[in-house]
Automatic annotation (TrEMBL):
This is Transmembrane 9 superfamily member. InterPro entries: EMP70. One of its GO terms (biological process) is protein localization to membrane. PANTHER family: TRANSMEMBRANE 9 SUPERFAMILY MEMBER 3, TRANSMEMBRANE 9 SUPERFAMILY PROTEIN. Keywords: Membrane, Signal, Transmembrane, Transmembrane helix. It comes from Salmo trutta. It is found in: Membrane.
Length: 556
C-alpha cells in the first residue's frame, strides 16, 4: 500500500542465458551502470530466496507512486573493449534480466544482434508502465527501446521513463497474468488424469479379485466346506504362499537401512501432502522463495513421522542399535540433498553464479538439521518404539529359514523390481512434463489440485502394483517380500530419471557445465526422493495385505 509520491523501489535481480534458467548472475556482473539515487530502505532476504539465488540489488532509479517520469538519463556507460566484449557475449547467449517492483517480476532482454550476427545492439531505454488500483500497484510492464550499436570507446546513455495508469485488476488477482491456463489446463492434462484414473480402477479391480479369490478359497478349504467346485479343489493345494507362513514375518536383511528408508519415505509423503494442501490454499507462487521455505519448514516439522515409522519398524524387526538407526533415518534425506547442493555449489562458485549458496545459509540449514530435525526425530523414534514396536505378527517365525525353491525367471525378485515401477511411472509421467516445464522453463506451476490428484493416484497404483508383485512372489514360495515390495515401487525413480534425460535432450536447449550438472544433480535428488516415497507407500500397503492374508490362515 502506497501514499502519493511514496518511494517505489525497482530491484534488479539477476541476469543470465534464456535457455539456462538456473544459470543466473548478479545483474551488475554485466557492466551496467547504477542510477543516481543511493539511499534505500533495507531489504531482508528469506531462507528460500538465499537458496534459490535471488540477488536483489537497488537499481538507483528514482520512482515515486503516481509520479510520472519523462524519459530521463540516469547514468552513462564508458564502453571500453572489455565491457563491450561482456555485452557481446551476453547478447550472443540471449541473456535477459529480471527486476522486481512491489514483488511483481519484470523481464527484459539485454540486447540483440543483427541478422548476420556481426553487429550487436544494446537496449538502453527502459519504458516502465505501472498500473495501480487505488493505492496499490497491480500491474507492471516493461518495454525496451533505444537500440544502440556497441562500438568500443564510446559513451552509452541509459535512460528510463515511468508512466502510471489506472487499472481494474484487483490486488489479489495481480499475478494472474503470469499464469498460463492454456498450457496447464490443456485437454491433454485432463486426459492424462482420466487415463490414470482408469488405470486405478483396473488395478484396484485386479487386487480385489486376487484378495477375494485367495481368501475365499482359504476360508473354504480350512472350514472343510464340501461346496467347493472341482476347479477350486484342483487349485487348492497349489497355493504356495501358505507354505511360507513360518518365514514371511522374518526380519528383512539390513533392517537398519530398511527401516530408515521406510521412515524417510513416510516423511516425504507427509511433506508432499501438506505442502500441496498449503499451496492449494495459499498462492505460494506470489512470493519469491516461499515454496522452498514452506517445504523446508514442513520437512523439519514432520520429522517425528520419520522417527515413528522408522523406529517402530526397526523395533518390530528386533533391532537393538536404535540410536544409530535414528541418526541414519534423520540424516538420510538431508545428507542426500545437502551433498548434491554442496557439489553443485562448487561449480556455481567457479562460475560466480548467484546460485552459489552463501556460507551463512549453509550454517542455517545445518542448524535446522541438528537442532530441529534430530530432536524431533528422537521424539518420534521413542514414541514409535514404545507405542507400536512390539512384533505382534499373526504367525510364529520358524527358527530355521526355509530353503527357497527354484522358480521361473520372471518370478525372481530382480525382475519383479524392474517391472514394478512401470505402471506408477505411467500414471504420473504427463504430470512430470508439466512439473519439469514449470521448474526448468519459465512457467509458474499453479494447478496444485491436479498435483494432489496425481499424488493420490500414484499412491493407489503403487500399493496395487506392489501387492500384486508380492502376491506372485509369495506364491512362488519366496518370503523375501520386504525389500522386493519396497524396491519394486521405488524403481519408479529409475524411470523418472530416464525420462529426465529425454526431457533434457529433446525438450530444452540447456548447455554448459553449470546448468547440466544442476539439472542432472537435482533431478537425481528429486527421483531418489520420489522413489523412497513410493517404496515406503508400497511397503506399508503390502505389509497390511500380507498381515491380512496370514491372519486368515488357520495354522496347525
Amino acid at each position: 500500500m502506497y501514499f502519493y509520491k511514496e518511494e517505489v523501489v525497482l530491484w534488479m535481480n539477476t541476469v543470465g542465458p534464456y535457455h539456462n534458467r538456473q544459470e543466473t548472475y548478479k545483474y551488475f556482473s554485466l557492466p551496467f551502470c547504477v542510477g543516481t539515487k543511493k539511499t534505500i530502505s533495507h531489504y531482508h532476504e528469506t531462507l528460500g530466496e538465499a537458496l534459490q539465488g535471488v540477488e536483489l540489488e537497488f537499481s538507483g532509479l528514482d520512482i515515486k507512486f503516481k509520479d510520472e517520469v519523462m524519459q530521463t538519463t540516469y547514468c552513462e556507460i564508458e564502453l571500453d573493449k572489455a565491457k563491450r566484449d561482456a555485452f557481446v557475449y551476453a547478447i550472443k547467449n540471449h541473456y535477459w534480466y529480471q527486476m522486481y517492483i512491489d514483488d511483481l517480476p519484470i523481464w527484459g532482454i539485454v540486447g540483440e544482434a543483427d541478422e548476420n550476427g556481426e553487429d550487436h545492439y544494446l537496449w538502453t531505454y527502459k519504458k516502465l508502465e505501472i498500473g495501480f488500483n487505488g493505492n496499490r500497484i497491480v500491474d507492471v510492464n516493461l518495454t525496451s527501446e533505444g537500440k544502440v550499436k556497441l562500438v568500443p570507446n564510446t559513451r552509452i546513455a541509459m535512460s528510463y521513463s515511468v508512466k502510471w495508469k489506472k487499472s481494474d485488476v484487483k490486488f489479489e488477482d495481480r499475478f494472474d497474468k503470469y499464469l498460463d491456463p492454456s498450457f496447464f489446463q490443456h485437454r491433454i492434462h485432463w486426459f492424462s488424469i482420466f487415463n490414470s484414473f482408469m488405470m486405478v480402477i483396473f488395478l484396484v479391480g485386479l487386487v480385489s479379485m486376487i484378495l477375494m479369490r485367495t481368501l475365499r478359497k482359504d476360508y473354504a478349504r480350512y472350514s472343510k466346506e464340501e461346496e467347493m467346485d472341482d476347479m477350486d479343489r484342483d487349485l487348492g493345494d497349489e497355493y504356495g504362499w501358505k507354505q511360507v507362513h513360518g518365514d514371511v514375518f522374518r526380519p528383512s536383511s539390513h533392517p537398519m537401512i530398511f527401516s530408515s528408508l521406510i521412515g524417510s519415505g513416510c516423511q516425504i509423503f507427509s511433506v508432499s501432502f501438506i505442502v500441496i494442501i498449503v499451496a492449494m490454499i495459499e498462492d505460494l507462487y506470489t512470493e519469491r522463495g516461499s515454496m522452498l521455505s514452506t517445504a523446508i519448514f514442513v520437512y523439519a516439522a514432520t520429522s517425528p513421522v520419520n522417527g515413528y515409522f522408522g523406529g517402530s519398524l526397526y523395533a518390530k524387526q528386533g533391532g537393538r542399535r536404535w540410536i544409530k538407526q535414528m541418526f541414519i533415518g534423520a540424516f538420510l534425506i538431508p545428507a542426500m540433498v545437502c551433498g548434491t547442493a554442496f557439489f553443485i555449489n562448487f561449480i556455481a562458485m567457479y562460475y560466480h553464479a548467484s546460485r552459489a549458496i552463501p556460507f551463512g545459509t549453509m550454517v542455517a540449514v545445518c542448524c535446522i538439521c541438528l537442532f530441529v530435525i534430530l530432536p524431533l526425530n528422537l521424539v518420534g523414534t521413542i514414541l514409535g518404539r514404545n507405542l507400536s514396536g512390539q512384533p505382534n505378527f499373526p504367525c510364529r517365525v520358524n527358527a530355521v529359514p526355509r530353503p527357497i525353491p527354484e522358480k521361473k525367471w520372471f518370478m525372481e525378485p530382480a525382475v519383479i523390481v524392474c517391472l514394478g515401477g512401470i505402471l506408477p511411472f505411467g500414471s504420473i509421467f504427463i504430470e512430470m512434463y508439466f512439473i519439469f516445464t514449470s521448474f526448468w522453463a519459465y512457467k509458474i506451476y499453479y494447478v496444485y489440485g491436479f498435483m494432489m490428484l496425481v499424488l493420490v493416484i500414484l499412491c493407489i497404483v503403487t500399493v496395487c502394483v506392489t501387492i500384486v508383485c508380492t502376491y506372485f512372489l509369495l506364491n512362488a514360495e519366496d518370503y523375501r517380500w520386504q525389500w522386493t515390495s519396497f524396491l519394486s515401487a521405488a524403481s519408479t525413480a529409475v524411470y523418472v530419471y530416464m525420462y529426465s534425460f529425454y526431457y533434457y535432450f529433446f525438450k530444452t536447449k540447456m548447455y554448459g557445465l553449470f546448468q547440466t550438472s544442476f539439472y542432472f544433480g537435482y533431478m537425481a535428488v528429486f527421483s531418489s526422493s520420489l522413489g523412497i516415497m513410493c517404496g515406503a507407500v508400497g511397503y506399508v500397503g503390502t505389509s497390511a495385505f500380507v498381515r491380512k492374508i496370514y491372519t486368515n490362515v488357520k495354522i496347525d
